[in-house]
Structure formats: C-alpha cells, structure tokens
Fold this sequence. Notes:
Blueprint: H1 2-8, H2 17-76, H3 116-124, E1 137-143, E2 148-154, E3 167-169, E4 180-185, E5 206-210, E6 214-228, E7 254-262, E8 269-282
Parallel strand pairs: 2-3, 4-7
Antiparallel strand pairs: 1-2, 1-5, 3-4, 5-6, 6-8, 7-8
Amino acid sequence: MRASVVRAVRPVPLVQHSTLRRRARRRRVLWGGGEVLVTVGVVLALLVVHQLWWTNREARRGAERKVEALEREWGAEGGGTGGAGASGGSPSSGDGTSSGPQSSRPSRTGPSRTGAAAGRRSYAGTADAALPRRSQAYAILTIPRLGLRVPVAEGVSKPDVLNRGYVGHYPGTQQPGQAGNFAVAGHRNTHGEPFRYLPRLRRADTVEVETRTATYTYTVDKILPQTSSRDAGVVRAVPRSLVRPSYGYSEPGYYITLTTCTPEFTSRYRMVVWGKLVSMRPRR
C-alpha cells in the first residue's frame, strides 16, 4: 500500500531562475512594444488633427483678416466698395479703356502680344502703378457658388502664399482684366483649402476679382477634370492643355484659370477651371 502511494506522487518540476528571467523579459518587451504602438498612434492622430483642422483654422482666420485689411486699405483710399456681383462697363485690358471682348476682339497677333511682357506694360499704366511684390496680397477672389472670398497673392510659394490660405497668382501670367490669362492656384486640402469645392463649379458660374482699381467679373466656360501636374499649357496666354489638347482655347481672349490638386488629399494631378471676362466696374 505504501509503495503504491509513493508511485502515485509525481515529481514537482522545478522552475529555474533562467526561465523566470526569460518570461520577465518577454513581458517587458511586449509591454514596451504596446507602449510604442500607442505612442505612435497618438502622434499620428495629432498630426492628422493638425493637418486637417488646425492648419485650416489658422489659414482661414489669416485669410479673412487679410481680406478685411485690403478692404480697409482700399476704402481709406476712396476706392469705394467694388463688392461682389459687380457689372457694367466693358472688360478692360488693364489700362482703364473700354475696349475689350464685348466691344472689340483682341488683335490676332498671337500669344506674344498677350504674353507677360505686354501684360506688364498694360498693368503699369493703371492706378496700380507697380507690379505686386513677391508674396504680396493685392486682390480678392470671390466665387459666390462656393461661398468663397479669399486673398490673391503674387506667386505660388507654399510657405509664403498657399499655406497661408491664399490663392496664388502664377508669375508670368496676366493680371486681372488684362488680355491673356490670369492664372491662379489654391490648396484643395489643408491650409485653408480655398479650392476644396472647385469641382462644384459649373458653366456660367461667376468668378470675381477685386483689385485696388476695379472689380472684374468672369464666367466659368470650360472645366478640365484632370491633367498632369506638369501641364504648363493650361496657364499660357491662350490656354490649352498639352496633355489633353481637346481642352482649351485656340485664339486670344481675356481668360481666368483656376487650378488645384486632384484627387483629394493627393498632388498627383491637377484640375483646371477656365473662365472668360464679361464685365469690369471701376472702383469709385
């Protein structure tokens, strides 16, 4: 009987200190890895919040203040309101005359006559005696369908213009109201995203540009949903896509070009909206 009892008792395995240490290290590694993953997740979440909320908030507030500052500056100079919905008069080439698309067609002398050099001479003859400085906000873009009212600054630098919530004027293209192409760019996502809803525009929608001297009204005429980010033809004096030549124009005119990235949250392609100048009202 005693022997059978002894045989029934199994030996208790001994836990070595090395085994305990391995288990402890494993727990520390798993715990540390979990902490790292949680920390990375929190950092990524904060980055998303910063990009999608904070940059928009700050850029929009800054853009609104700049619009108000321009309006005060122009009002102090006796320029009147020149508000949205301006009409009357004829489109001008920028020299204050009444010649333009409604009264007479531009001379068919090719892009060289409506290029940047000709535009600078015309612009210099207006009350805005000097060309805008780099990154200077000098106009206000209004798109009623989008509820948008945003400053236009010279250049398309991200840190100095676009990331501040402004719309940037492509250097070398024409100024508002001039014969040729007044071309601008704006963010579609983050940093104020002024052009986020650009795809909502339709033909005959109005786009207005206010400057120190006048308000210019354009109507949307053509929309290019997607093209290469290197498609320089869309901002030429006579705009036409080099990638999709069926989109664009073949003769001189008074154009506006709005460009932004597409699809959303990428910068791989560009969307383009073109309009034609239909009216000009001097500020009084």
